[in-house]
């Protein structure tokens, strides 16, 4: 029995005495009187066995006691998977020992020595390709007889296609560094690349000296002053040990002297920065901050004026802004990105591998090569989208300036805008309304990080002053109504953008371009172009000059609010085709309606500032507004559905909410995953205290096991379908690299998601009467109390908030604008790139910077002070960058280019797991190898934690976890020898892998906190997912030699291996995966339980969640077993779920078709079927797990091993389905064992049926289950077995 009981769970293996805790057992074992005798007996037994094996092998012990490097070790070091058939005869997946780990193809800084960074045991990767620009050739001709240049493909099969007469003069991907190829920054060590000599950077109208100033830390007089000021501006708001360490490092800077600080004055040094007139680059004198005053017309209902000019003007002071063209020029001249800008957009294609990559899949007589696959279009960034290709074609067709030289390149500069108001403090009303500008021709991986300084602060929009009501009282004798205040807020936004866009130099550059000598020394004519504007819905309404939640609420189409609930139907797609268009008749209508405002009529809008500016350039400003994943889905649709699911649990009763919280409370003790991917959960999830978008994202990724079994079976299945479709849609929407295949899957997933929401609305939501959550009713009470206090003139301001009774709430998410927007995402990705290009999350991260600056102001006129701080930080960053370049140039002159190249080459030879000379001493220091980003894994070489095998095995003689010898073949086991019978244990293992978007990332395996791993199985597996799963128990290295058949050396080998506990697929889980909308369910394997794995064979870490619905068991291992990774638990769960949605790369491994995966795992062709859905069967096989009963739920909380049903009220509903439970259905028997009858194939089970017509508008009163919308499948009869 698991859980609290009178039986003492811990017993001594030597004397059988029982104890209540593991600590008490450990204390007793050290002094047990029977321990010595047990050790002696065990030692004698094992020694006799070893002597018998030695005699049987009839071999002499070799004299060579040294470890030989780079000697191939045969099969024993491969993973020791379960046998092909278990004791019950069920087929078990076999992990693959080797696969080709393809590396990112851009290897600048580590040129030809990349292959040396691989462990000797791994196959060498293909050599790095030549530079992309040599030798390209035109492959096709456009309609205008212009060549289309196709560049050679890289190792992944990715190539670029430039539709232009000549290739760019500089390839932006030729000198990518290791940092830019790594998702985990710690993978890329700080290398010393070949120093680049930057030419003079200037705008042609100016003359600037090309050499660095004599005082490189100008305007500071001493190095000491610069070091202190730079440390202060780059430290956190609250000082930490890291900041203290940084200060100690800075104080050792060459040139720093305490004597210089005798006259140091902080205010004076800040004044030097403010008065410094920089000539070029970011925050040059021309690109600095300016301040102006705006004047708003103040109409009043019922008051008539002859014209808008006669209306009283209200001054709004304090607009902090920077000139757009100067900001663009300063950014273009930034030397950090001189060689990384994509000046010309291109099409990017991918030739997928024709067969899965596996290094051990060889054929003696290979068949004829298959025909090459068709290239697949991929979209990764702004510079390979349809929008930018269209813009570049427009510029290319413009007449050239006759004064320009023939080699002057005409380039578009994509401008990505973002604005949103943010609170600056937790208390009070202090806020800031910044506008950020990003240049889209550099990689999003660079510009999206706040540390890159790629976000240019363009303006800080002032708020509508509080004295506006005093102005209205003085002018009209009454306060401005709420409708007038809303109009004034919109008017203020338009005035700000009119001021920014009415810059004559910017307008001229937008129209005819401007000549600029860029940071790479090439003269180009640049054409600024607005591409996207990322903002939440209230901000979009202000920018588009629309009414908030009007009859037609969408800024992109003319759909009506009452039609939004039909999203995803055929008629809905027809309505979306009616786009908003900024035509001339529409503009005249808006101008005519605007005049009514000053005639005393209703408040109406005004033309958008972007409408006036972009009309003459043929650009519809409505196309600027892209979907916003964070606000529209994570904090919109999903948050609303999550809240209603909690209301359903409240309506369900029987402690459903408490069990939901308990499951997440148990999950809070589970390991996190990755760097900021899955964080610790709150114990009371239903309370939702201070949650951010990332928290709701974590809920979506993990909620399916937590919600399982909490409602009756029918509704639980409907909710499970809904949760899977939401998670699947969200994962596709978050991808950073899309292909034409994933976009088609995304469109199908959108239809499936909409269909699941409609089914949830007309079935589950109709079965329950839901009321407000406690926090919702309390919030309504506070709002009511505040409103009463306001009406009472503040007299009741201190009154206690009301505590009203919860009121009935209906599900209304499918009637919101945010729900309507979800169908626009696939088209938006094709036009503007993946959602991480346009998400407001990037701007939210930049808000952190201004909040830090606010803490350093005196809170008076904070906008002006924040602007000054932002300028100082930019200048300090420029000085730091100049000093670094000067140091590199000096170092190059001292060492010479040969020394630099030799240093890079030596670094490239670093091993992640080198063969090291072994000594017998126990070293306390970890001999850390060079953590090359291209190595498969890294493991320490410490000999600090010694494990004596005989003593350890004697201590755990009765533990079945130690019986792992059967997992090694007998033909090899008899010839294996471990030096001195000693193993060396390690705490962590770091796995390196190439992600689906062709970047390097890493996972950390820790047996105590992050133990689960993912391995690859045979590529021709019939199951949905060719993966195996294991839980790492210990990480070891040892000195081993093998002298059996096939041995090439009798020397000791440095061997690293993992001791794992195997998972296997749950035999009752016959309907999981994308087709059935369920996560894969696994259990701990029973034959064999444990084994060994080569770390080089691990694909990456896995995130495995307990299946709480099925309870727990203590029958697999004893309570004190060393085979459990977490020693705090003395039981196992009966089942677990594999989280496919834990991050983007994991999702693409299950979906298939990842470019960076290079065919490893699920192929592209298999991924095309991921959009197919099949209705699940509701019956289960005999002996299969059933929904948990109330007794089973109590047992789950108490640690019971029993499985039951999902609630007493479920039994009546499921009686009909379970009548034939004792008779095993042939279909289910076949599904449980696919190898049982070779005559049947998986394809025989289902056939495609013609599409059935669906009503455009579904009947909300239809309570029956509906068919899915697209690619409908139905089960047909099965032949007799």
Automatic annotation (TrEMBL):
Transmembrane segments: none annotated. Residues 10-44 form the C2H2-type domain. Residues 39-69, 116-145, 353-376, 885-928, 1179-1268 are annotated as: Disordered. Keywords: Metal-binding, Zinc, Zinc-finger. Residues 356-365 have a biased composition (Polar residues). Residues 122-138 have a biased composition (Pro residues). GO terms for molecular function: zinc ion binding. Residues 898-914, 1197-1206 have a biased composition (Basic and acidic residues). Residues 917-927, 1207-1225, 1252-1268 have a biased composition (Acidic residues). This is C2H2-type domain-containing protein. It comes from Lentinus brumalis.
